[in-house]
Write a structure and sequence with these properties.
alpha/beta, eight-stranded mixed β-sheet, 3 helices, 47% strand, disordered N terminus, NTF2 domain-containing protein, Nuclear_transport_factor_2_euk, NTF2-like_dom_sf
Length: 149
């Protein structure tokens, strides 16, 4: 059974729909390897996702998204850069300095306990191009960089 099939069968969430965000020519680069096509990318992302979950609740790695940048890419595309920190625990936080959407925490408002659990940092770049349906985009290129603290 492929990871994607097992994922869709066993997980109650919508993770298996991530595969539809990629095209057959999409690329995903991580740890010196490049994966091509929606199935290969989805399988790789599923393995990374499983690794971040850990074997127990105290081993789980959460993400704190600290910065998100968006800009035009070529004529009709867009690029998005997301960066932040990994923490030990099960939190997924979106926070920022400066202008914040309602309900977002600032970096100053984070609990000192959360900041003491920092286990590394990440930067992820997405390059999106128009898909086949109007107003829909596919990820044509994705790069993930992970550093350990």
């Amino acid at each position: 059974m492929f990871i994607a099939d097992a994922c869709c069968t066993l997980l109650p969430d919508l993770w298996c729909h991530m595969k539809s965000f990629y095209g057959q020519d999409s690329t995903f680069s991580f740890s010196g390897e490049t994966h091509v096509g929606k199935s290969d990318i989805f399988d790789t992302l599923s393995r990374i996702r499983e690794m971040l979950k850990g074997n127990s609740r105290c081993e789980k790695i959460g993400r704190v998204m600290e910065k998100v940048y968006c800009r035009a890419h070529w004529e009709e595309g867009m690029s998005v850069r997301v960066s932040g920190s990994f923490i030990m625990g099960n939190e997924f936080l979106v926070c920022a300095d400066g202008f914040c959407a309602e309900g977002m925490l600032s970096m100053v408002e984070l609990s000192p306990d959360i900041l003491s659990k920092q286990a590394g940092h990440f930067q992820e770049d997405f390059f999106m191009e128009p898909g086949t349906a109007m107003g829909c985009y596919v990820i044509s290129k994705q790069e993930l960089h992970i550093g350990v603290s």
